[in-house]
Amino acid sequence: MRFSENTEENKKDALTAKQQANMKSCLQPTPKVLVSCRGLNGENNVLAVAYCGNCSYAPPMVMVGIVPTRYSYPLIKESGCFVVNLVDKKYQETFDYLGSHSKRDEDKLAAMNVRLQDGQKVNAPILPDCPVNIECTVVDSIVTGSHEMFIGKVEYVHADMELLDSEGNIDYAKIDFI
User: Fold this and answer.
1) At residue 131, does pLDDT exceed 90?
2) Helices (DSSP H) in the chain: which residue ranges?
3) What is the DSSP letter of 59?
């Protein structure tokens, strides 16, 4: 019997091979990212973000979902910019720490000796120890329930030199993502 035959037995097998999954993480795995930002008072912060992805290629735009109770939320709201930093396995310990501690309670950037560097186009820091940093200007946002999705127009992309081909394209296969 061929699998493509639409028999009752095939339908039953397909149903038994599937089970309802948790909807909260249905699009995982996606690369782990740290979003860095700077408030108008010059205060820097970095937070781990689970909801992040491309949303346009012309012009290039990405979106990040931030829970309004997060410490970084008002910094991004008031400054209108952020940086998406792609994280590799060499940065695992720092990622875990930044994702589980709030700047509300401690200076977590100092605790982990996080290196920051000013962005080229936006007033937010990049994490130079991450292989790719994507500077963004907020062009819109939408509240989607638990998160506000900030739509960021990509203004500048930093990438480690060994990741780039002769035309400046990033070879993501060379990044050992978390």
Assistant:
1) yes
2) 8-16, 72-79, 92-100, 108-111
3) T
